[in-house]
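Late entry, evening session. Most of the bench is empty. Finally got around to the prediction I had been postponing all week. Sequence below, unchanged from the version circulated by S.P.
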Amino acid sequence: MILMKLIRNFKCLAVTSALWLSLALVACGGAESKNESLFSSEVVRSAESALSDKLAYLGIEAIDFGDSLTSNEKAAMTWLYAYSYTPDILDHSPEFYRANIDVAIKARQELPWGSSVPLDQWRAFVLPLRVNNEILDDFRTTYYEELRDLVKDMTMEQAVIELNHWAHQHITYAPSDGRTSSPLATLRNALGRCGEQSTFFVSVLRTVGIPARQVYTPRWAHTDDNHAWVEAWVDGEWHYLGASEPAPVLDHAWFDAPVLRAMLLHTRAFGPYVGKEEWLGADLNTTELNVSENYIPVAPAMVTVVDKEGKPLEGVKVTFRIYNYADLYPAVTRTTNRLGEASVELGFGDVVVVASRSPQEMAIGKLTNKEGGGTLKLTLGDWSEVPSEMHLTITPPIERVPQIAVTEEMEHINAERMEENNALRQSYTDTFPTDEQANSLAKELGLSGEKATQLSRLYKESRGYHREIADFLRSSAQQGKVQEAIAILASLTDKDLHDVNIDVLRETLSRDLTSVQWSDADLFSPRVMLEHLYPVQKQLDEAIKEIKSAHPEWETLSIAEKAKTLAMVVDGFKVDESYNPRGIVMSPATVWQYKVGDLRSLQVLLVRLLRTAGISAKYDTANGVILFKDEQQRAEILPFKEKTESEEVSADCQLLLSYKPEGYLKTPKYETNFSIGYVDDEGQLSTYGFDWQLPYDQVSGAKLLHDRNYLLTGTRLANGAVLMALRKQECGKIAPLLFDRDETAIGVIGSLNAESLYHDLSSDSDKSLISSTGRGYYLLILGRAHHEPTDHILRDMQAIKGADGKLLLPTVVLINDPSAELKSLLPEAIWGEDKWDIEYDFVKSNELSGRLDKPVVIIADTFNRVVFISQGYTIGIGERVAQIVEELKSK
């Protein structure tokens, strides 16, 4: 009765596992006093048991935590080692964890809110270091004292807001690749994508003992891409905020409106966790939670799966998928119960559902969720029975207006503070390499022409890491290897230039390669996937030496035979399928030492071994296989860790695509307009990993490794809905790229980068479009001074004023040297000059020919979608724009 009362009062989720049930008894309790143990005996016993099972699985006898640990330190070490991912416990020392644990305990004791944080929240959202897929670092131990002193006299709420300003003083947004930089690397770089901003800010909050978690919409429903932000636990409640994007109050951010159109919002808790949120799933490391109810109205989306006789099927895998970037992203995975049912709480919109056991037992359908819930019944059958074409209209949740209690004065004060933050950050980024400094370094190194240009780009891209990169280059010049050093840097990603361990560069440079070999990055580059780079060349050299010793015939083997020998060695390692489900790549040296790793870690090790053995090799993201070059420089697939012998694999399935240009879509791009997928051995839909935005003609001709393939295309409409088509694809047969259209609807016809800069005339400064217009739709007018058609257009725009005299949309007018008289035609607009050539970027990105015929009127939104464009003078253009605006608002 006591447990049931706790569950009823706190909405704790009942789970069947004995481990979780024991935790529920303590997790739903209140905060314990400072003098009490931070870990109950039940929690410690469960963690000890979990750690014992993990070490046995990994084949590790024991881990020595060290001497003189307090009971809290020992319990915390056990807790972290029990539930951390395999790379986290094997790539980092016990001393590293102990130092971070001590800071977490110190923050709990020294900050005024410390002891008020319930222990279940502290264990799940303060003590753990990992936030996303970043490499763990010393941020907590490095910055604790500075951050503590900044907020020690504040309330919890004040501290969260102040720390967000501190974060904004140090970093701001910039898009980048999927590898998440560590907090210290992000700090040094002063930039981060949303996943890095939120990882950084969660680390900041946890450092001072405030529970924090990264929240994701795994994919937006109304537009492409996703977003991540932060929730902070303040005085008993979770509150959201944009990371390093300060607002005057909590629960207020630029995404207030977009989040209301989400289908799902989720987060992860470290270890076994029981809270009031819907339980989405758990592995042996983390618990996935559905936090959608904190933001949007939700209802149960229920799927019932039956066989052809109508009998409910238990144990069927069901994925709830969101259309995004021409892909059906599996946002939630469930398994049917004995009634054949699987459900999840989702927002009010459409998802595509795939239910399957195998390619012979599968089904695909659309589920519309609404108030009161949505239902879908699927009958399993063979893939061959799925229609050759499926055409679906995917509708996202409707647009709603957020209710935010913030005054103009509060926004003004916050904006002034943000300008101060920008100035502080700018004073730091002003120390980054300039063109002049880059040219000077090139001259110092004796470089000219293309090599000097290449070095200049690499050096400037290193940003806050420029001293280390410059030292490496100067050292290479002293060795007579500056060309090789540049080749190494060029083989890396831009993000690597911000944080690569210099020892990685030095050991790569020390390799004994010929000039021909130095021209092939697949022979020397330390980069394989998007893994963190460790200095491991010495261990790899020793590994190859050991393998050669075990194979006396090595020198007589062909390249293919050598490659297969190396694959056979790594194939003998244990595949960690339990304790690293997110595929965080472990150091190749650690994998070699322990002879264990998840599939990605094993693949990275194998590629590095191949390169160390002098074999050109790479990981092919499109098909998820390893390729190597034989004596004739032909790329061959290296068989490795096949999932099942029964899986259909064919290297002879050629993909052929054609396209007849229509409208503004001149060249369809991969995972923007279309994608190629296959039905895997579980009967689920999987997407080939071709490069993002690769033009269709560069995808055409590729060899696919599977036979059950499909082509997916999508047309995004202005209201966020998608006209999706899924067509089966036959090997070797030309497939035309066809896009469904709705001539009665407003569609997305192009793209315009909302981060594009222009010169604002009122402030005499450069600004981005998005910073001037705010989030949502806006109007951009490109015109000419002393130009009659431009005058007519501006006069016509009186039609886009509402009854109150205000413009229906934020409007930016870009005309070089406009007269006061010209500006008086539309004084309500934001006036500027196109000094950064937005016009050129728009023409280039949309593959238009030549310059635009001015005046140009564009309606776009800050998700970079263009829904309307007009060139030259058109009679009644103002009324047409007004009609479109009304249609957009009515959607």
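Two things to note before I forget:
The mean pLDDT is 92.
The two ends are 50 Å apart (CA to CA).
Will write this up properly tomorrow.
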